[in-house]
Every structure is written in C-alpha cells, then in structure tokens.
Amino acid sequence: MTELSPAVAPGTGTGTAGTADPEALRERAVASLVVARDRTTLLTSCVEEPDLTAQHSPLMSPLVWDLAHIGNQEEQWLLRAVAGQEAIRPEIDSLYDAFEHPRAERPKLPLLAPAEARAYAADVRARALDVLERAAFDGTRLTEAGFAFGMIAQHEQQHDETMLITHQLRTGPPALTAPDPEPVTLFTGPAEVLVPGGPFTMGTSNEPWALDNERPAHRREVAPFFIDTTPVTNAAYQAFIEDGGYTEPRWWAPQGWAHIRAHGITAPLFWRREGRQWLRRRFGVTEVVPAQEPVVHVSWYEADAYARWAGRRLPTEAEWEKAARHDPAGNRSTRYPWGDADPGPEHANLGQRHLRPAPAGSYPAGESPLGVRQLIGDVWEWTASDFLPYPGFKAFPYKEYSEVFFGPEYKVLRGGSFAVDAVACRGTFRNWDYPIRRQIFSGFRTARSQDA
User: Fold this and answer.
1) pTM value surpassing 0.85
2) CA 216 remoteness from chain centre
C-alpha cells in the first residue's frame, strides 16, 4: 500500500483576494501545480498497469485516461493559449475531449499507454513551468493574476478527486493508506444554529482564481433559518434506515422513490448489514460504519428523503453560503467560514490528508462566526438548489466548464470533501451532479425555516 503524505502545502490555496504581486503569484502557482502533480503521481503509481488501464466502473474513466487528459488540458491552455506554442500531440486532442467521448466508451479508445501518458504529462509540465517562470500576469483576462495557471491546478486536483473515487470503486487489496483524523470527544454543542435573515453578498468578483460559475458577486436576501451545526452523521442516518426510511414512499421525491426501487437501494453506497451491524467498504478495507462520522456516498434523493423524515429540509444554496460566509459583526462575506486566510490543517479536512471524514464536531478553529462547523472539507454537501447561473454570469474561458450544465437536471453541492484540495475549494466554490449520484464523496446537513 502507498502511504499518503499531506497534499496541502502552506500557501497553496488561491491566496488573498486581489493579490497582485507577480512573484507571490508565481510562487503560489508553482506550489499549486507541484502539489497537484505529486498527488496525480501518487494516485497513478500505487497500482500496477492493469489497474491503470481497466475501467473499474462505467461511471468512471480508466485512470490512464485521466492522467493523459490532465496533460492535454495543461498543454491546450498553458502552452497553446497562454504561450502561443505549437501543439505537441494534436492528434490526441479528440481522444481526451471529455465531451466527445462518454466515460463508458473511453476504454475502447486508442489511449496512450501508461508510460507514454506519464512521459507526455511530464513533458507538458516542464514546458508549462518554463512559461510560468516568464509570465507577466497581465495583459489578458486569461493571464491576469495567474488565472490560467490556477485554473489548471484546480482542473488537475478535480481529476485527482475523480481518480480517488475510482480507487474507492476498484476491488482488490488496498492501494492507499493514510492516518486517520485526530479523535475528538463526542460533540455536545447545539444541534442547530440560527442564521439571521437579511441580505448578504453571494459569489465573488475579486477572488483571483474563482471560476466562472462563482461570479459575479451579488446581493441575496435570505429569510432567517436554522441549519445543522454539523453534517448528518452515520448514526443519525442509521436511525432513518432502522425506521423504515427506504420502505416508506412518503419521504421520497417521486423520481427518487422510483430510482431506489428500480435499483434495490436500501442504504448508502458501499454499506452492507451483517447481523445487527452495518459494515462499509472503504478503499479496500471493510470496517464497522463509524457512528460519529458524517454520512458519505448518499445521493441527493437520499439526503432529501432523510431531511423530510427528520421534519426538516435541505438548505438552499444561498442559505448554505450565508451560513458559511456571513460575518454579522463585520456585515460582510468572508472567503471561508473562519475568515480570509487560506485553509490550514486546523481549519478543515482537505487535500487527501486522510481517507475519511473527521468525526462530527471536529475543527473548531474552522467554524463560522455563527458557530456552524465543518462547512469546508469532510463531505460535499447536497443543497436543495438546481445548478443555475448567477445574475450577470458570463462564461469564461469556455462554455463547457459551467454553462452547458445549467438547468434542473443537476443539483448543487457545496463545501468540498476530504478528497478536495484547498486550491479547488472555497466558500464560493460550486459543484454539481445528478441527484442519483452516490459514488462521489457526498453527504449533507439539514435546515428548517425559523417559522417552521
């Protein structure tokens, strides 16, 4: 098994909003790219070649596809678009176009072999670092504040999370290991927190590496509501199961009920009952489901059904962001729940330092001014909202990142997970997926209106 080392180096987040010092930007971009590549190397070197080329689930690409795709995107944006260089391997562009070839079809493509994919990605990276060394970070919107380099670091880290999902789906002995989060005493704080009503600033217009769907900053009015202090735990979710949650249609959206019945779903993905105990498979290890960890690998439909069963609901995306970013004392929106500083290990469970969520109530240094905990890291949190553009949205630098996904087919997730690097996670970051998805590192917390 391969031992994981901390994947978040100090200062590898997107930095203080508005940072303009070229050398500081260059240092941050180099660090972010290096951390991402170290993680990619780990995820693609801890298994033998057959595991790299196999498709472990029709929902996922072979690991070797992700590896070459990472290099190809870096070449297209940093070498061609930023530096104006000629293509290194133009003939492979279509092979690694995510829109041209669905994941289920990718194993049939004439993909680069693992050694060739590694060599290609390494060649691109060496040239990209040379471009970065001479970059002026001005002139075009693509290069301003090092955006293109930050975009590529985020892209690689997003694929690293995807590859970690593939590792969770693969069968066989464990290939990865990591230390567990620090144990904490049972959380005995309030179960919920009141978030005051009124306007707040949602989104951002000055975060240098924020992606297009996070922009622009705009005012949102939110009525007062209560939100769970921590994500919903495995113990709480087990109570829903034991109370017949998966057998009672009144808790489920009609499409969700039809889906779980059609697929025989009776518990979170990777769970199974053995006698009176619930077990789960986690990266090749079978273990007792830990009661105090946030539940993970549940779909939006499951999260929504639990919330209804509990007499509550999922928070809207705007409610989630207000709970995460609103500072009543300063009447402003912060970058993170704890303030504007980049995430540190005391704030959140990020960067694949661990291969599991931390117990509910962990990271008191990362709580919001209102006292809400673990809003960043641990598990992606489903919200009630469809993935839609903000007022004044403009696609940049290409429509296929966000715009083509807008609509009611996708639900928004917020906050990141233990598998997310700090460079690709902030208080404004938006993720989205189909409401049936469960292989992702998804959990949730619930909310209720003040007058409910």
Assistant:
1) yes
2) 21
